[in-house]
Design brief:
single chain; mainly beta; nine-stranded antiparallel beta sheet; seven-stranded antiparallel beta sheet; globular
């Protein structure tokens, strides 16, 4: 488990860490032309009656936000338009969230929280954004310029997984670290890290 403090987000951006590895950085598949699934188990802290961002996929902003004790999910589409969706899920301090985000290219995007479906979005006419080098930021809507507009959120993160179709590419349980990076249990070197980089 990691404690993500306010104004100190963590980032999944293995392609930015080194030019030579990993060979196939897993963050590059979090884009509309690929089938992928993100999974995360988190506990939200000190979020009641506050606005914040749980996670954001950048630079094409897609992510989960808190507003007035409710969850909103913003989707960026391939035509650069955006739409947000309110989830019938009430937020309070120390609430546990087990989230799965499943994307099948040009077919659908599904979000489940604690095994309850929150969103089932048809993408046949308008697909998800496409980007060659996206990253995932946890606890903020940005990480290159952190300030009061970054919607920073304090949380505990217990587990993170990323699949390409059914293949597990990255798995973090935050029990082993090297130089401010969580070690990827798959051995694929898809680190999740704390160091502030440009995204």
């Amino acid at each position: 488990m990691i404690h993500i403090k306010k104004y100190k987000p963590w980032i999944f951006y293995p392609s930015a860490l080194c030019d030579s590895y990993p060979e196939n950085p897993a963050n590059k598949i979090i884009s509309g032309e690929h089938d992928f699934q993100l999974e995360m188990r988190i506990t939200l802290l000190d979020t009641e009656d506050k606005n914040g961002t749980v996670f954001s996929i950048l630079p094409k902003y897609t992510g989960l936000d808190i507003h007035k004790n409710l969850l909103f999910f913003t989707v960026k589409f391939e035509d650069e338009s955006s739409q947000f969706y309110q989830f019938p899920f009430t937020i309070y301090d120390n609430v546990d969230i087990d989230l799965k985000m499943t994307h099948v290219s040009k077919k659908y995007l599904k979000i489940t929280i604690n095994d309850d479906e929150q969103l089932n979005l048809n993408l046949e006419k308008l697909g998800l954004y496409k980007d060659s080098n996206p990253c995932v930021v946890f606890g903020s809507n940005s990480f290159s310029h952190i300030d009061e507009n970054s919607n920073c959120t304090e949380m505990e993160m217990h587990e993170f997984k990323l699949y390409k179709k059914k293949k597990l590419l990255a798995h973090h349980t935050f029990d082993e670290f090297i130089f401010n990076k969580s070690v990827d249990k798959t051995g694929n070197l898809n680190f999740l890290h704390h160091k502030i980089l440009e995204c």
